[in-house]
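Researcher: Batch entry, complex prediction.
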Amino acid sequence: MSTYREAVRAAIHEAMQSDERVFLMGEDVGRYGGYFAVSKGFIDEFGPERIRDTPLSESAYVGAGIGAALAGMRPIVEITTANFSLLALDQIVDNAASYLYMSGGQFNVPLVIRMGTGGARQMGAQHSHSLEGWYAHIPGLKILTPATLADARGMLATALADPDPVLIFEHGTLYNMEGELAPDAGAVDISSASIRRAGRDVSIITYGATLWKALAAAETLAQDGIEAEVIDLRSLRPLDERTIVESVKRTHRAAIVDEGWKSGSISAEICARIVEAAFYDLDAPIARVCSAEVPMPYAKQLEDAALPQAETIVATVRSLVSHAGG
Amino acid sequence: MLETPAVKHGLALLREMLLIRRFEERCAQSYAEQKIRGFLHLYVGEEAVGVGVMQTLVAEDVVISTYREHGHALARGIAPGPIMAEMYGKQEGCSHGRGGSMHIFDRATNFYGGNAIVGGGIPLALGFALAAQLRNRPAICCCFFGEGAVAEGEFHESMNLAALWKLPVLFVCENNYYAMGTRLDLSESVTDIHQKAASYGIASAFVDGMDVEAVEAAAQTAAASVREHHGPYFLECRTYRFHGHSTADPQLYRSKAEVEEWKKRDPIPMLIARLKSRGECNDDDIARLESEIAGIVRDAVAYADAGTLEPPETLTRFVYSEQPA
Amino acid sequence: MPSLGADMAAGTLTRWDVKPGDHVNSGDTIGVVETDKANVEIEVFESGIVDRLIVQPGAKVPVGTPLALIRGEAEAPAKAPALVRASPMARRLAREYRLDLATIAGSGPHGVVERADVERVAKQAEVRPGPAAPVPPAAPAPQPPAPQPSEGAGMRRAIAAAMTRSNREIPHYYLETHIDFSNAQRALETINLRRSVKERLLPAALLFKAVATALAEVPELNGYWIDDEPHQSERINVGMAIALRQGGLVIPAIHDADAKSLDEIMEAMRDLITRARSGSMRSSDLVDSTITVTNLGDLGVESVYGIIYPPQLALVGFGKIVERPWAENGMIGIRPILSATLAADHRATDGHRGARFLSALERYILQVQPG
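Model: Structure tokens for the complex:
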């Protein structure tokens, strides 16, 4: 039995041990042990140079991470949460994502940025953003959303080996999640979606923490004879369009669950892709379950109402399939 | 750097500045002919800074610059042809035609741009220095930026971080007193730029940026400090650009009289006068240099004119790498 | 879009010769359709006023697709049909099953037609998707199409497909009889003595008439096999197999051959042969033969054992007339003898019916008089 946190820890630890070009840099990653306790004890093992605490200077230390990557290192830059990444947006978009293209292919940026993401812990409007879909809009970046222990354990190694900038979004509610992790769990691919539950009546497409809500919803729906196929996107850029489309071609109905705000979210992009590639296989409009378009409120009942929940997913899917007779 | 044995160092400095001057003037003409499009920021008047500083850098050092980087690129040793071709949007340009005037990149000379966001390159410089430090290498990173950048938060974050981590960065602030159309005293509460660096605990100095020999000497001190003390150094070079911010600038924000005043201190005539007075050059030397440089610039334009356009079919190449890390 | 060939799945409308508001009479040609092999004029089967041209020139549509709307004289112009609300998948399936969406009740929200609704209707109609031969208004029989001078290969392919299917699906039985043609020969000579060469009656005309007359007596051989059962046709349209010089075969019909005189049959033959050879067949020529006759006597073949053109129920073959020894009333003589064969679909008839047919055929030939 292990936890998501343990899986991330193990991934960073293995990377640090196996490649001396790897170092971890970010706020409170060293002496504090990491805001999410992911790097607890690492500074004693690897030293303050390679487990490097930074001042509250997102732009400077993310830029430094980019420069170090350009120079041939393999930095893991940790931005505590995606909320703070906005301070480093220029470095991420104008430097990390653009250097290879602008330089005509001369300078790649082998950088990994890890960020906490998401709401659901009453942290208020400025600490609850789900911006991974927003980042997935930027060409030149790769966007990962590990939802399982195996992915938390295995995506980092592949990301570090990738020659281009990779952003890994770890949902804050997942760190304590328990699960089984194979002792030999290793690197996993970072470009394909995974069908976590097969079904024939509807394709529920999601990522990150909402995967577990979708799976819970699928269990409830099964009691009514509605068999939902649940797809974990795993990567938001590139999107595994093939898995999505093949699934919808089989089920003819799709519901997308996304913790981002609905308008202009990654769910809208997935909708467009399904319509482009599987229009003639759709037996119903595509449904979306997203966050309400409000800055995240603090009060629990309001926050719960704003976020996608298993109950909402169940109700949405029910209305999608109600006329097909199961 | 020129390696003809007969030319003394003074003449070498002159040659480099003259090459930049004639190259930039030719760019202005090409822009008027619409061969160069988009933005064009000319280094005319500031040649002494780039040339002077570049004398002290070695091959393993890394150079980061701004969108006003043609002078730096030429002084660093990037061939004029590919620079002109880049501005002509040709595949034979340094950045494959992908970057244009503001994004000159060259792996061979460790020239990392060419950055268009004011202050955006400064954090990158920290990274190069950090990598050298972690690997215990002597390389330093020389980061050019204008005085406008010191208003950006990134500048302050970077000064702090560079000092805190003792990063081997040579910060060169080209203070030409105008951030596009805004004069320095209208945007900074403290206009002695180097003092800002000093307030972060960084060794700093200022120098007359119109005097190439003075810049060279100051840069030697600065670079030596970085290399020996393994920490940052901040050199403010006080200079002036004779053209507008870019080709689009009607220069409503400064008087012609002021420009004429600064032109009296044009670094090139200043150096010529000094070399002549030292007997290190005569009119024939000048004429020979001009003629040689005219040929180089002509060849660069011919190279750019003869260049080819990247076909749209390969538009999406290099969004991601084509080979593994 | 009419079916103009055994394996025609779609055709291209190349030209309209009428416009909305035009008055048309039954039999008027109103446009031209191009198939893989030919350009065929299409006729309208009712009189009325052209209400709407649905398919535009250049469009290729499946057989069975409505091309135009003709309204009765007294009717008001049709309103454009209301748009049916259906899911994309339901629309696609309806297209594949050739079902009219407007006739399918929708069980989706606000009556939207969904896949399940289309599947349900398709199951009830026992329609299978794909390019199966449809049932257009005039219930025509698929025929090898009219020729295009340069495209023998396409036609051969179509014929090959039809023949393969026929051989595979239709259980054939064969009967042959030899008929004393001397009486018929004498009758023809008598008739033709008084006529110019142009107006001569050929033996073939007499054979077509014989077939039509025999079918009147044995109607079970006149018609089609559709949806697992025989359908007798009210009209007797004898299909005349015409070989084309450039290769290939076309089988236009001599309509109502039972009601036509020998002269009328002869005239129909001349007209069809001329138009077949010049490539100007019409859809009405090609779609409704109820039986096919293949007459290879001119080529020197003695008997013909043919393959039925689906979905017809029979094929009659005639060989050449050969002088043979013949026994009659205990005496031997030499007579002109004609071999007549019947290939018939054993699902629709058995040898008994087939024999009755050949017997009736023989009777006509033995008894025909010049009058």
